[in-house]
Design goal:
The chain is mostly beta strands and 208 residues long. It has one domain (2-207): Porin. Helices cover 6% and strands 68% of the residues. It contains one helix and ten strands. It has one helix spanning 2-14; strands at 17-35, 40-58, 63-81, 87-98, 101-106, 113-135, 138-140, 151-166, 169-180, 195-207. Strands 1, 2, 3, 4, 5, 6, 7, 8, 9 and 10 form a ten-stranded antiparallel beta sheet that branches. Strand 1 (17-35) and strand 2 (40-58) form a beta hairpin. The longest helix has 13 residues, at 2-14. The relative contact order is 0.21.
């Protein structure tokens, strides 16, 4: 985490930024879990994220640095078997604080529009979780307080467009993908493989 923050500061101080803008964004998402292990009956969840965004444009270049703070809800439902072969159904609903660090490459304005592509990383901290279990189709209390990891790291990718509605105000829209890079599971009895929270997002926001 410290290395990522130091890298971000170095990028900012060496980029000769000329234009800093702030704004807000919101995103309905489709959240799901991918796993290296054997599971079945996976169900995706419709969730929501929102947050603040900062862009730092680099002088005479068609790219900007992006950062901000996002509050993102994630979740999924899937089934697996414990050590005795009993079927367990797990329903995850979690909330995370994410700090995206990305580069956004964009075209020059075509009329009032420009088009962009972004890529970066987003460290995350879990704010809260709710996990419900059913074993043999009956409610079940699994041992342990936390069943998803407190810290995560995500690869973020996105594509979209930006529209200038006035000299100092722009709207932006995009499609984003958030891919978990670190194991998200903790203390799932009978399940030893890694699992990862991922989501697709329809992004909309405003920059001032």
């Amino acid at each position: 985490m410290k290395k990522i923050i130091v890298l971000m500061l170095l990028m900012y101080t060496t980029s000769n930024a000329q234009d800093i803008r702030v704004g807000m964004q919101m995103s309905p998402t489709i959240s799901y879990i991918s796993s290296d292990g054997d599971y079945s009956d996976k169900v995706n969840r419709i969730k929501f994220s929102w947050g603040f965004v900062t862009t730092i444009k680099v002088e005479d270049r068609n790219y900007s640095w992006m950062t901000g703070i996002d509050v993102t809800t994630k979740g999924s439902k899937f089934s697996f078997s414990d050590n005795e072969g009993n079927p367990i159904e797990a329903t995850f609903n979690t909330q995370h604080l994410e700090i995206p660090l990305a580069i956004r490459m964009h075209t020059r304005e075509i009329g009032y529009f420009s088009y962009w592509l972004k890529a970066g990383l987003a460290p995350s901290i879990e704010l809260k979780e709710k996990v419900d279990f059913r074993k043999n189709e009956l409610p079940y209390e699994m041992a342990g307080d936390n069943h998803s990891e407190d810290f995560g790291l995500n690869l973020i990718l996105g594509i979209g467009t930006q529209y200038e509605i006035s000299e100092e105000t722009d709207l932006f829209f995009g499609l984003g993908y958030n891919n978990g890079l670190l194991n998200s599971f903790e203390k799932l009895e009978g399940y030893k493989d890694d699992g990862f929270f991922n989501h697709f997002a329809l992004q909309a926001g405003v920059l001032f």
